[in-house]
């Protein structure tokens, strides 16, 4: 089997932005963030299908967007869970069998086709892969009283992005193991590490931002200008 499936996580509430609605529907130049995401995966020649993870209340809204923009590769909308890891597990259980699965944050509207291509390539070779960029700022370690006690070497630090790409059976097994053992996960590379599998980190893009706060909207608009 040589099938690559994308899961786009769209169940987040975006409470930090205080929008009063799901940030996936926030419009950048008259187009919802989630639409920009779906289109990039839709147009990629190596992506065979797309599934969106949504809150139960917004499934109909996502379906209407899919119909409006005539996306052909979207295979279904899957109901999310309480936490991100629950939503990912629901997504993994709800998609069709595939070779490589790409798990992407719906709030990252500027993912490039190259990042997707590289993720598929390296996941096939190494079982797990994720894009990342080097940390620009100086990172300090502090003690419990708030005082600096050391400087962390930036050369060994990477800010991880999505899509995070895996061989399907591996990441499904990893998330099921984490769920069964109440392991708290920060992302999907953390999940795969529970099986002793280490993700290959390839070059991401500083434009591949996650829109989390109101300030990020201004950054996103600037990216579009350029």
Automatic annotation (TrEMBL):
<keyword id="KW-0414">Isoprene biosynthesis</keyword>
<comment type="pathway">
    <text>Isoprenoid biosynthesis; isopentenyl diphosphate biosynthesis via DXP pathway; isopentenyl diphosphate from 1-deoxy-D-xylulose 5-phosphate: step 2/6.</text>
</comment>
<comment type="function">
    <text>Catalyzes the formation of 4-diphosphocytidyl-2-C-methyl-D-erythritol from CTP and 2-C-methyl-D-erythritol 4-phosphate (MEP).</text>
</comment>
<feature type="site" description="Transition state stabilizer">
    <location>
        <position position="16"/>
    </location>
</feature>
<dbReference type="GO" id="GO:0050518">
    <property type="term" value="F:2-C-methyl-D-erythritol 4-phosphate cytidylyltransferase activity"/>
</dbReference>
<dbReference type="InterPro" id="IPR018294">
    <property type="entry name" value="ISPD_synthase_CS"/>
</dbReference>
<protein>
    <recommendedName>
        <fullName>2-C-methyl-D-erythritol 4-phosphate cytidylyltransferase</fullName>
        <ecNumber>2.7.7.60</ecNumber>
    </recommendedName>
</protein>
<feature type="site" description="Transition state stabilizer">
    <location>
        <position position="23"/>
    </location>
</feature>
<dbReference type="Pfam" id="PF01128">
    <property type="entry name" value="IspD"/>
</dbReference>
<dbReference type="InterPro" id="IPR050088">
    <property type="entry name" value="IspD/TarI_cytidylyltransf_bact"/>
</dbReference>
<dbReference type="InterPro" id="IPR001228">
    <property type="entry name" value="IspD"/>
</dbReference>
<keyword id="KW-0808">Transferase</keyword>
<dbReference type="GO" id="GO:0019288">
    <property type="term" value="P:isopentenyl diphosphate biosynthetic process, methylerythritol 4-phosphate pathway"/>
</dbReference>
<comment type="similarity">
    <text>Belongs to the IspD/TarI cytidylyltransferase family. IspD subfamily.</text>
</comment>
<feature type="site" description="Positions MEP for the nucleophilic attack">
    <location>
        <position position="154"/>
    </location>
</feature>
<keyword id="KW-0548">Nucleotidyltransferase</keyword>
<feature type="site" description="Positions MEP for the nucleophilic attack">
    <location>
        <position position="210"/>
    </location>
</feature>
<dbReference type="InterPro" id="IPR029044">
    <property type="entry name" value="Nucleotide-diphossugar_trans"/>
</dbReference>
<dbReference type="InterPro" id="IPR034683">
    <property type="entry name" value="IspD/TarI"/>
</dbReference>
């Amino acid at each position: 089997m040589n099938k690559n499936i994308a899961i786009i996580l769209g169940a987040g509430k975006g409470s930090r932005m205080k929008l009063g609605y799901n940030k996936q529907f926030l419009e950048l130049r008259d187009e919802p963030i989630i639409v920009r995401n779906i289109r990039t995966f839709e147009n990629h020649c190596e992506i065979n299908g797309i599934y969106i993870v949504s809150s139960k209340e917004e499934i109909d809204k996502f379906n209407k967007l899919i119909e409006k923009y005539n996306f052909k590769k979207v295979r279904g909308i899957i109901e999310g869970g309480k936490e991100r890891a629950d939503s990912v597990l629901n997504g993994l259980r709800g998609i069709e069998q595939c070779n490589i699965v790409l798990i992407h944050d719906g709030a990252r509207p500027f993912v490039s086709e190259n990042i997707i291509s590289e993720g598929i390539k390296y996941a096939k070779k190494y079982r797990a892969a994720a894009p990342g960029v080097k940390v620009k700022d100086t990172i300090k370690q502090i003690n419990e009283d708030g005082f600096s006690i050391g400087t962390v070497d930036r050369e060994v630090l990477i800010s991880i992005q999505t899509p995070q790409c895996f061989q399907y059976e591996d990441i499904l097994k990893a998330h099921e193991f984490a769920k069964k053992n109440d392991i708290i996960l920060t992302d999907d590379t953390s999940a795969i590490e529970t099986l002793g599998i280490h993700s290959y980190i390839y070059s991401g893009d500083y434009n591949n931002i996650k829109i989390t706060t109101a300030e990020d909207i201004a950054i996103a608009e600037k990216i579009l200008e350029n």
